[in-house]
TrEMBL record:
Protein name: FAD-binding PCMH-type domain-containing protein
The keyword Oxidoreductase belongs to this UniProt entry's keyword annotation: yes
Alphabetized UniProt keyword annotations: FAD, Flavoprotein, Oxidoreductase
Domain (FAD-binding PCMH-type): residue spans on this chain: 2-170
Entry-linked InterPro entries: CO_DH_flav_C, CO_DH_flav_C_dom_sf, Diverse_Substr_Oxidored, FAD-bd_PCMH, FAD-bd_PCMH-like_sf, FAD-bd_PCMH_sub1, FAD-bd_PCMH_sub2, Mopterin_DH_FAD-bd
Gene3D superfamilies found in the cross-reference section: 3.30.465.10, CO dehydrogenase flavoprotein, C-terminal domain, Uridine Diphospho-n-acetylenolpyruvylglucosamine Reductase, domain 2
UniProt cross-references to PROSITE patterns, sorted A to Z: FAD_PCMH
Pfam families reported in the protein's UniProt record: CO_deh_flav_C, FAD_binding_5
Species: Caldiarchaeum subterraneum
Top-rank taxon: Archaea
Regions annotated as coiled coil: none
GO molecular function: FAD binding; oxidoreductase activity
Length: 287
């Protein structure tokens, strides 16, 4: 573990000030908010910052709103903010589950939505937002662009500002399941995020996301989704595990072989679908 080196910190007065700094003086500055990744990386010598932009106090980027059927989340919203927000009721069990899966309470109080997305990789939040068909807004001083949660790493001079998705509505549920070798602070071995909508005992719409669709890349199982839309929920559950196993091609590593990951992933997807169904039906076991 190394000592933290000296570096210059700029604390902007507003989002506009922050973007102006990045554009004119600090294009290569490290942007910090919760610092749950930044401090460990500096101590381990993985980064040596010279300039740092601290945006942690910008209240204009910390909010959760529901307006005209759309949910908007500011980039500086913390994981604890998500878990405790009244906007997310029992239909959003996947977001509520972050209280269990996302580190300890001190980490959840500091870690931000934007920082988590910017870090990329197999982050739980990326998969949850992908299952909600969310869009991520990224701004520079001159431009704004919209991208998917898996492509949300900012370029030089850019900041993530907002995450937006449509409220899932009635007869719908979003759930998340995770297999890890130790609770809360563990790195995921396999995960599954599912958003499900049921109508007249049929699957009206579904989005299924796993942490390793191919290699180490998270993504949606589009073929599996297409194959169960329109089916009776009992048939969808009976068929889904076989289809998932045939669709995923995960990379193996010391945490789990390819074969092990395929088996666990199919189980997690099935369990997560069942959780969604039980939430939608009020706990009635119809599978």
């Amino acid at each position: 573990m190394r000592e933290i080196p000296d570096f210059d910190i700029y604390i902007p007065s507003s989002l506009s000030d922050a973007l102006d700094y990045l554009s004119n003086e600090g294009k290569e500055a490290f942007v910090i908010a919760g610092c749950t990744d930044f401090i460990p990386m500096v101590k381990r010598g993985r980064i040596r910052p010279i300039k740092v932009l601290d945006i942690s106090h910008l209240r204009e980027l910390r909010y959760i709103t529901l307006d005209s059927g759309f949910i908007k989340i500011g980039a500086l919203t913390t994981i604890s903010d998500l878990v405790n927000s009244p906007v997310f009721d029992n239909r959003y069990g996947g977001i509520k589950s972050l209280e269990r899966y996302f580190g300890v309470i001190t980490t959840r109080n500091m870690a931000t939505v934007g920082g988590n997305l910017a870090s990329g990789g197999e982050r739980d939040l990326i998969q949850i937002f992908l299952a909600l068909d969310a869009q991520v807004k990224i701004r520079s001083l001159q431009n704004e662009r919209v991208t998917s949660p898996t492509e949300a790493k900012p370029n030089l001079g850019e900041l993530i500002t907002e995450i937006t998705f449509k409220d899932i509505g009635a007869d719908s549920c979003m759930e998340f399941s995770k297999f890890e070798k130790r609770a809360a602070n563990g790195i995921s071995v396999c995960t599954a995020a599912v958003t499900l909508k049921i109508s007249d005992n049929l699957v009206e719409d579904v989005k299924i996301v796993v942490n390793r669709v191919k290699g180490r890349e998270p993504g949606r199982l589009y073929r599996v989704e297409e194959s169960i839309i329109g089916k009776r929920i009992e048939d969808a559950i009976n068929d889904v595990d076989i289809m998932v196993k045939s669709e995923v091609d995960p990379a193996g590593d010391f945490r789990g072989s390819k074969k092990f990951r395929k088996e666990i992933t199919k189980v997690l997807v099935k369990r997560t679908l069942i959780k969604c169904i039980r939430t939608i039906t009020g706990g009635v076991d119809r599978v």
